[in-house]
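Hi R.,

Here's the chain you asked about this morning:
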Amino acid sequence: MSWVFLRDLLSGVNKYSTGIGRIWVAVVFMFRLLVYVAAAENIWKHEHDEFECNIKQPGCENVCFDHFFPVSHIRLWALQLIMVSTPSLLVVFHVAYRENRERHHNQKLYKNPGKIDGGLLCTYLISLILKTGLEIGFLVLFYKLYNGFKIPRLVKCDIKPCPNTVDCYISKPTEKMIFLYFLVATSCLCIVLNLSELSYLIFKYSMKCYLKRHMKKQQ
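And the predicted structure, written out as tokens:
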């Protein structure tokens, strides 16, 4: 899979982000995207081929693997990366709309089309809420699908066509566990950064409105 489009998206969003938003972009790009491409993808590359059960009953190994791994970890992480980055497109599109509007009217309508104020502020806040919701949603989905954030060495399976309870072994469980914890930790860090940026923007513009009203009263 090519991740160039996601890299370009994050680079574009970085131009219109606050300081906290730029830290979020750096975390997603360096500690999630690069780790995924450079290491995690290879670890889960042959997860089905390396899943072994102590019986050669036709179909048994396949149904056991499907039961314990209904969705591949690595594909779910890829979907998570794409989904949590997509709301940032709202900000890019809004800035593009402002710039296109200026070209259409052939005059300067905004001091800075990329400045987070007015309608763009609302769009930015919505994107933060969506990103936070998606991050939490995917963490809950991971937890529910795999019964917690863990990779067992041995799983016991008694699903037909297995004739009895069989032992199945997962390859490289320790290595997979380390990357699983790392990716969960970075996801939690992104949630904290999104909530911090959301709180910062709300507080900043609440104070700005309060000071404007205070100045008008004094005048």
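DSSP finds seven helices and three strands in the chain.

Let me know if you need anything else.
M.
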